Amino acid sequence: MGSTASFLTYVPVSLAFGTSGLRGLVEDITDLEAYINVRGALRYLMATGDLRPRGGIVLAGDLRPSTERIMRACAQAALDSGCPVENAGTVPTPALILRAVSTGRPGVMVSGSHIPFDRNGIKLNKSVGEVLKSDEGGITAEVERVRAEEYARTADSSAFSASGGFRRTPELPVVDPAAEEGYVRRYLASFAQGALSGVRVLVYQHSAVGRDILARILRELGAEVVTAGRAETFVPIDTENVTDEMLDRLEELVDAHASAGPFAAVVSTDGDSDRPLVAAVLPASDREPGGRSVRFLSGDLLGIVVAEYLRADAVAVPISANDAVERRMKERGVLLRKTRIGSPYVVAAIDDLRREGKYAHIVGWEANGGLLLGSAVALGGGTMEALPTRDSVLPILCNLSAAAEQGIALATLWARLPARFGRAGLIDDVPVAISGAILAHLVPAGDVVEVELAAAGRVLVPGRPGGEAERLAGPAAAAWHERGKTLSRFFTPALGFDDIVRINVLDGVRVTFHNGDVAHVRPSGNAPQLRIYANCNTQERADRIVELGLREPDGILRRMEKAFACP
User: Fold this and answer.
1) What is the pTM of this model?
2) CA 358, CA 355: separation in Å to the nearest integer?
3) Which CATH architecture has domain 422-564?
């Protein structure tokens, strides 16, 4: 960011693109910063022809305390750009994008998704779907042009005060219910009437923006729904980091409402309701002594059930996905594409698969459970059209429906999945510079993203399925061997780790060990966090790897931070 406006009494902090959308601390997302970013993005969309002259946008937000103020700034940016605003109100991100795409307009969603309430964000979508990584450079350039224009104004000519707030608070248009109703109809018109009859579900509502919409859809499909845990303060829930405390909370809610009959599942979503949380409720006969009554299933495994329920023949998932996905897709003869982490990368892969013209049913998903539908699918009540953005309702409905149609418990359905177990966790407040320093020491330069460390010191680059591996030699091979030695300093035999046999650096550093354990270290794209993912043959070992990674003050991630942090 260049020079600041002379009339401002603070130093602005620019918003930056993360894994998906713009993110920042609430104190940094002033009215001025939100206005600059949205106006710049709309200029880019106009320049590319995605936004028609005098065309409108759809605007929505989540339930964070800061959201309404930021929505007002976004609305004013649109109006000053000559764009009418449809205010969809507080609805899930996929509901906003469905409304925007179905009417050929861009959308603006104010939400920080799962991150803490002291942060927020702005997620932009084009009239055809999500903003992709290839769009970010053009958007950033236009944002900086708008920034220069706004900063060149005087205190008298600017619409903003010295603190970056509007001098005169903009008004939001009256809420239009079309986005919410269209989203609900999407499911009621596709799944068979009464598809969930006899299924008793607890909806943990907390502060999810889609808390009432989810309950409504389940009820109208025939489920008996109990709602619980509604909160008026914002509760950040990360479906990739479901803690023991969260599972305890779910169990408490189930126990408090179990007198009227057993539940099949407890379901919920993250803050902007594009990521599902699903836990099966176990009958007493199936519980281990002293064990929990709820069994959580990670989002990447939920996606396997969805892919089978929708008869997918091509799948796109991030590299962080549980490798049970790869095993099951191989068993089913389903094409699998792996991507970097973030829905824009999965969307791009889905677009590539669609352009190839070989596949009838394309789906993608992320480890957080957000499901992207890449092609239309016929269901019991009708055809559901593609919606290539993260959605929480579809994976919830597919898992509940698959179990109901087979007449089995949800946990029984999940027991048929490949026996690979995952866990993920994170540490907070790890500056981006430190995460970058860690990766710089672990990722060699060059275009190779995956190698196998074979016998006799050989380094192999795996080929495509059925193809032969390529052998690396010289400095390239030496660099990978050195990275393997560096990683072995942290993933030691004393901690139960075997020899390293594969390293993938498509996004972060994913390490596969000889005994089948997988550990994946990666900075968050949305927040100053460092994550660790584990895949193992037992849940206990996956839990243990994450515990070893997060342990304070001397866990694997903290030791990496100390070893590689910039002075």
Assistant:
1) 0.89
2) 8
3) 2-Layer Sandwich (3.30)
